[in-house]
């Protein structure tokens, strides 16, 4: 089950009727501030909830004890509009406001209290909340708790009664909303209480955390901790061999909270099956997914969310302003249109009650809209200059970028041939002169190789640079051989059944398994120089060869591009400031 469409009318920004369709897996909402993105998330998660089954007890003994339906931090699977949107007595009126359209409904719709369309009306209620404060006692490690009841007005969205559904209950379906309050810095809190995480999930969380943030932490030696800081979102922290929870950055905490939210649905699926209930998916909404995450981590986070969405039948909807993330998503959306949708929202000063929606826009569209100034003039990006050893290096790097990224990198590829040692000597002489340069080195300089020439260079020189770091301007392309040898060895390692030999760019010109083997039947191509000659002689086919090499080495390529993208974003930002 999933939400395929939402309709909003006569509420704040959405005075005119607004309809937005969603993807079964991931829906991305973007746009300038004040267009109603958070309102949409609140409505989506307000539509449903899943309560834990009630345990049964007779004569003081449990006859049936069910596993609870709670998130890893102990929260219920439900969203409440009033928890997200503050009531405005001057503008918020009661009455019909929204319709949520469901798809792929379960057979027993009454069991889930669901139908294809569920309408919601707004209702204003009087109530109170308990405000708790904690005051540290002088010269003691003790806190005094104070509670005060405060009267409030709550603005709720309640399901309307309909035929065969004479109730105002929400749809029985798990939902969870992650708002920006999850980013509240730990250092601003006076009271912190640890909360446990199921041991069987700790290692999985740490492993995912490490992959997304490219952290150098030991999975076996690290621990996860949830810290209750007095709001809805406990901090998700890692204690490693290098730092404790107090040293966690907001980016680390945000990553941990999102991972835990997704894995909460994974655990829920397992618990429901053990309780004899049928799991029919759920919905997770995340406000500002990209907040506090660097560009490479944003992309990795999205890739992981897409995989988990498919695995768990989990509908994920999030907002973002990140151009680098939107560019990454746009490329994936073209390859997987049924599972990814981008909705860009706009509003206009001469028609304030109308919100325009554009589905799956090209990157140029939201670049212009998100970067425009008050006088509607697009911001022109500065250029980053690329220095490399030769034309082959530039070709190889351009192929990696073209295949793995939809980003409109602002790069100037300098048509110069300079040996790698001279490039490093130039940079090392005065790094500040090359702050807007990126230097690309061939794979045969891989520092993991025992006889890497670059390792020898670093031993003999006092260097002022790092290599293959998001803080670096110098990068070694993926692989461990010269580019020509890399392609030669790859092509000649393939079996005759490999799809490469069916590629029309080769097959139509008589290039097949046998012709490639016959090229070296006498064993003439045995060194780098011979491989360079072969590379040059067969240049028309290299674009096809590299495409398949990238596919078969995508893990290393993505790792390289993640670091490259992060460094690129850093350099561009520094040039723009």
From TrEMBL:
InterPro entries: AAA+_ATPase, AAA_GajA/Old/RecF-like, Bact_Antivir_Def_Nuclease, P-loop_NTPase. Residues 23-338 form the AAA+ ATPase domain. It comes from the Bacteria. SMART domains: AAA. This is AAA family ATPase. SUPFAM superfamilies: P-loop containing nucleoside triphosphate hydrolases.
